[in-house]
Amino acid sequence: MPRHQPGNSLKAARELYLEATNDPSARPLVVASWQRSIEYKVKSGSLDAPYLDNPNLDSPLARAALPILNRLHEQLADDPVSTIITDRNGVVLSRKVSHEGLTTHLNRVRLAPGHVFAERYVGTNGIGTALASGRPVVIAGRQHYVEELREFHCAAVPILHPTRSTLLGAFNLTTIRQGSDGMLMAFARSVTAQIEAEIAAITSRRERALFHDYMEACSSARPGPVLALNRDVVMMNEQLSAAVTGPDQYALLDHAREIAEHPRLEGTRSIALPSGRVAELRVSRCRREDSDAGAVFRVRLIGRAQPTPAVSAPPARSSLGLVGSSPPWLRAVADSETAFVAGTWLHLTGEAGVGKRTLVEALHRVHGTGRRLEVREAPPSDAPAVIERWLHDIGELLGVPSNLLLLSDVHLLGDELRQRLTNVLARRDGSATAQVVMTSQPSMVSADDELDRVCRASGEVPALRHRYGDTEHLARFFLRKYRPSGDSRFSTDALTMLQRCPWPENVRQLESVIRGLARRASGPVIHADDLPPECRVSSNKVLTTIEALERDAILRGLMDRNSNVQRTAQDLGISRATMYRKMRRYGIVPSSLT
């Protein structure tokens, strides 16, 4: 590279780049990196390596690389060489160096765990350029784009997944001692090969363990349809692939992935498929070496597929008059109605906002003539007097056969109160008591305590994201409810965005969004641009009020700035690293906002 000293301005950097392109000794890979650095508008006269809190050290990359780096650290004692591992975004996960002088140099340029050394932030450097190009690189001295890095010689090699060849991160050697670039690169390649081999071993152990359990399930006396999966692998036997196809298969995999993400969830779950059939999933975890390798599902299919209604057909309704035509919803309504009409005590589970109380109120409205609906929530405090009064009231209500007693959100009760409530209900269980309906949110750990067994019937109200096609019907229903004049409608792009939203707070959140739209003065057609920021996220995490305000501020800022992350971060007074971290947390994808 030429020895022209660039100034702090972008103009000087461009001049140096123009000289580099005409220099026969300039390597194309470095020249391309400088060009990217200019396009990113990186300042060559100042270093800006953002800091990311709590980098992920529980990834397969970190688990494989850290023991190798520890061994290298012992071998390289007092040698002025630093070994560094980053993730695929350039976030430094680990840095090992035993030479005090080099440590001081590295700290001065913030080449330390948590800092981000991607090209878009610090320009041409070993880590960033290896990740951007996907190739091993040596960036020495003045080849660095930012002046503060030009005392270093760096050799970096991308780390690839051994089977999928996807980019996982980079291994980087950094020194201030001038020497053989070839020797530095040979060392970096050797260490990277060790890391990739260890990743392959870890992956292989997990996949072998899952495959072993999968094959055991398939080779049992009565195997039936079997599914096994983790984050990287999906396996299904021929019986399952032949029996479950199209939308049913997508729905089955969607539910199975959600279950597999919670390592403590086992037992049996039933899900309604889009075709109208029910899939009963018996879940067993695959655990090896104190880690979760995935889950194996033994699948039992119940019922027959129903004909798919025409797209233009009006939404079907149950006898209760509730909106929705998806099989999971219709099955939940039908099962609840059967139990209710028979007078059976019923336990309804489902995420917050799915409509459990709405369903109970509809059952009471249609089938509860002459009966009084009494709703009791968890007691407002743990004070003994409050608890005693709450239990006494429930006992009194149970003694009136004409009552319908709804115990709402019983998952909020502590262990002791659950046991005491169980005793009250068990003493009153019989024909001369009120009918009891309990509602709760599903637990991540399969619950099978005495309170659950008090009710002889149970059902799960599906989340809105699993009610395929119902979002459109519900959105139109709520629009008619809050704009009864009937002069408003959704555009195609608005309906598409509403259907893509994961709705973490379910029907309650959808109704709130439509109510807000209906109250705002606008034209007869509601377009995608009219929808609030929360409809543009992909996360199904339920947020607190403060988190929702923060998410909306970020979304509005990005929309105002044409998805420019850097300018939005400046407007909000936060760093780019913080901005990216919060975007990942809230499921915000800038490209989806334009």
Lay out the secondary structure.
Layout: H1 10-21, H2 28-39, H3 60-75, E1 81-87, E2 92-96, H4 100-108, H5 119-122, H6 126-133, E3 137-140, E4 153-160, E5 167-175, H7 181-218, E6 226-229, E7 234-236, H8 238-243, H9 246-260, E8 267-272, E9 278-288, E10 291-302, H10 327-341, E11 346-349, H11 356-367, E12 372-376, H12 384-398, E13 403-407, H13 415-428, E14 435-440, H14 450-454, E15 457-460, H15 470-482, E16 489-490, H16 492-500, H17 506-519, E17 525-526, H18 545-560, H19 565-572, H20 576-586
Parallel strand pairs: 11-14, 11-15, 12-13, 13-14, 16-17
Antiparallel strand pairs: 1-2, 1-5, 3-4, 4-5, 6-7, 6-10, 8-9, 9-10
Helix pairs in contact: 1-2, 3-7, 12-13, 15-17, 18-19, 19-20
Architecture overview:
Keywords: ATP-binding, DNA-binding, Nucleotide-binding, Transcription, Transcription regulation. One of its GO terms (molecular function) is sequence-specific DNA binding. With 594 residues, this protein is an alpha/beta fold. It folds into five domains: 8-202, GAF domain (Beta-Lactamase, 2-Layer Sandwich), CATH 3.30.450.40; 220-302, no CATH class; 327-462, Rossmann fold (3-Layer(aba) Sandwich), CATH 3.40.50.300; 466-536, Helicase, Ruva Protein, domain 3; 545-586, Arc Repressor Mutant, subunit A (Orthogonal Bundle), CATH 1.10.10. The protein is 42% helix and 16% strand. The chain contains 20 helices and 17 strands. The chain has helices at 10-21, 28-39, 60-75, 100-108, 119-122, 126-133, 181-218, 238-243, 246-260, 327-341, 356-367, 384-398, 415-428, 450-454, 470-482, 492-500, 506-519, 545-560, 565-572, 576-586, and strands spanning 81-87, 92-96, 137-140, 153-160, 167-175, 226-229, 234-236, 267-272, 278-288, 291-302, 346-349, 372-376, 403-407, 435-440, 457-460, 489-490, 525-526. A five-stranded antiparallel beta sheet has the order 2-1-5-4-3, with helices on both faces. Strands 7-6-10-9-8 form a five-stranded antiparallel beta sheet. Helix 12 links the parallel strand 12 and strand 13. Helix 1 packs antiparallel against helix 2, helix 15 packs across helix 17 (506-519) and helix 18 crosses helix 19. The longest helix is centred in the middle third of the chain and has 38 residues, at 181-218. The chain starts with 9 loop residues before the first helix and ends in an 8-residue tail after the last helix. Mean pLDDT is 83; it is low at 1-9 and 308-316.
